[in-house]
Amino acid sequence: MAKAKPKVLLAEDHDLVRAGFKSILDSDGTVKVVAxxxxxxxxxALIDEKQPDILIIDLSMxxxxxxxxxxxxxxxxxxxxxxxxxxxxxxxxWKEVLDLGVEGIALKSVSKEELIxxxxxxxxxxxxxxxxxxxxxxxxxxxLAAQQTDDGELDDKxxxxxxxxxxxxxxxxxxxxxxKTKDIAEMLEISDRTVSKHRENIMTKLGMTASAELVNxxxxxxxxKVGLNEIH
Length: 232
Prior knowledge:
Layout: E1 7-11, H1 15-28, E2 32-37, H2 40-50, E3 54-57, H3 66-75, E4 81-86, H4 91-99, E5 104-107, H5 112-123, E6 128-129, H6 134-146, H7 166-176, H8 181-188, H9 192-206, H10 211-220
Parallel strand pairs: 1-2, 1-3, 3-4, 4-5, 5-6
């Protein structure tokens, strides 16, 4: 009797993106996609229902973020292995994801061949880090090591900010997750110009000059672990 294929739950809120990755997985045949989720809450429900071997998930999800879903799975010690597919080109986000204990991470630009190879590695019990992520991740970890203070703690805590609005926090979250101005405008149902103005105000309030600082700040205050609707 042929061995059953590993079951996969594919969690991605954009229909076309999800369909594209499903097509790749179906055509290769290494795994079987048993369910699809459009938001974090549905992903958790389907994990309990379908008990997939692998969860392939985006970080930015409605209702419950990918980070929140992963945190729940790891705390509850589910057997489901996790591979993150993200648009966030931010080393501190990659590190935070890996620190949660996921088995794999890749940018959404990953090639079909590397994605399938990574899935096979995870199935075999090994880890998978997209080749486009590895150099930046290694550099970021080296920078963190160099920033260690004499007592061994990292001196990278953000300054206490002035009060931020809910909308500003939402913009910070989406910027940190790698979304472009146009995408953020569509998701928040505001104009491109308004998004740019929010970013300008945020940078001024926080005393920052680079987007990388904004990404680091979002990670520190936990915005990457919650959904847009959970921000207050």
